[in-house]
Design goal:
alpha/beta, 3 domains, six-stranded mixed β-sheet, VWA containing CoxE family protein, vWFA_dom_sf
């Protein structure tokens, strides 16, 4: 083994396997300083996993007071969350740091990542931490809440930047290009000019002579006003969709031919339309958790509808109804029969990978609802297609 370990490639491969296998593979296989630090950082987090501990995959000792019990630690000192966060930032690439912090808040409920001001001052903003802030903001004192708001603002700004580009692309068809006699360079119609002058091409010179240049005018397409009503389930499982609904509503707000409403619900209904232009403030007002009364939200949407044939109702929910399914189906049927386009989106986020009540989804689909999951960009494209049709 000693002879083999002299080969750098083999030694590096053995170290990788040692880190993958954990404590059971540690005998006679020491780690370099860098990998030993990485192993300790991983053990601080994943050593909390009871299943891994039972399987002996991790040694389960390098955790703080909230960490794993039992196996006995080998760490020189007890790490705090701040120490751990500083360490992984130095030891791992950004993508890995984001995965580790996501597991910390989502899988192991290490709330001090978003409730300890010392940690918040160091943490890199990410969607996972935004979700954690929304889940725990009721635990924060005013100073911590202000730091958390900055994190929320940074993540929302990045989401807005990405989606705004997709929305602009989706709605780029709202201007028509008509032939014009006004000769402006920026309105030069290249394709029509080339087609109209192909007869003047000189093969021996390899030149196309332009006798008739064509131009167009950029005139705005007339569109009827459409309503987009977003009904967003505030239950804890829908937190990612709540975030992206707020961003989507903000990006749709003020577009030509579109009037956007954003309505959040649990067992009550809250119209957040007045806060749509400030998604950060809007999200800080959202109260996650509680029961779910989808039927009440659908009834509220019906009262908002001005012109059913120019209305899109997007119900964003996992469809686990705590109220009356009969009333929900009756309300959805009424909107569909009036001419509304009814979307039942079981997820509205970048992954579009929902967990939902399939039985109720099938019954809504039977009524004529379009059921599925969308990214925010896909919803924007759907709205644009309706408005421009």
């Amino acid at each position: 083994m000693n002879a083999v370990s002299q080969d750098p490639e083999t030694a590096a491969a053995l170290e990788r396997w040692r880190m993958i296998l954990g404590a059971p593979a540690s005998a006679g296989m020491p780690l370099s300083d860098g990998n030993a630090a990485r192993d300790a950082a991983l053990d601080w987090l994943y050593g909390r996993d009871d299943e891994l501990a039972r399987r002996g995959v991790r040694k389960g000792g390098a955790a703080d007071s909230g960490g794993p019990k039992g196996a006995g630690g080998s760490a020189d000192s007890v790490l705090t969350t701040v120490d751990w966060l500083d360490g992984i930032t130095r030891l791992f690439p950004k993508e890995t740091v984001e995965r580790l912090t996501r597991d910390a808040v989502d899988r192991y409920q290490i709330h001090d990542i978003v409730t300890d001001p010392k940690v918040l001052e160091r943490v890199e903003p990410s969607p996972a931490l935004l979700k954690a802030v929304l889940r725990t903001k009721h635990l924060m004192d005013p100073k911590v809440l202000e730091l958390a708001r900055k994190l929320v603002s940074a993540v929302i700004a990045e989401l807005m930047r990405k989606l705004a580009t997709e929305v602009r692309v989706s709605f780029s068809g709202t201007r028509l290009r008509r032939p014009s006699q006004v000769r402006l360079a920026r309105n030069f119609d290249v394709k029509r000019t080339l087609r109209g002058n192909l007869g003047h091409y000189q093969p021996e010179e390899r030149k196309l002579y332009i006798e008739d240049a064509h131009f167009f005018t950029r005139s705005r397409r007339h569109v009827d006003n459409w309503q987009v009503i977003l009904l967003v389930d505030q239950s804890g499982s829908m937190v990612s969709s709540v975030i992206h609904s707020a961003v989507t509503a903000a990006c749709l707000w003020g577009l030509p031919g579109v009037r956007t409403h954003l309505v959040a619900f649990d067992t009550s209904v809250v119209d957040l339309t007045s806060d749509v232009t400030d998604p950060v403030e809007l999200l800080m007002k959202v109260q996650l958790g509680g029961g779910t009364d989808i039927a009440k939200a659908v009834t509220y949407a019906g009262d908002l509808v001005a012109n059913p044939r120019r209305t899109i109702v997007a119900l964003i929910s996992d469809l686990y109804e705590g109220g009356s399914e009969t009333n929900l189906l009756r309300g959805a049927r009424s909107l569909i029969e009036q001419g509304c386009r009814f979307l039942a989106l079981c997820a509205l986020d970048e992954e579009a990978n929902p967990a939902f009540n399939r039985d109720l989804a099938e019954r809504l689909a039977t009524l004529g609802a379009q059921v599925g999951a969308m990214t925010p960009g896909e919803l924007a494209a759907f709205v644009a297609e309706a408005v421009n049709s």
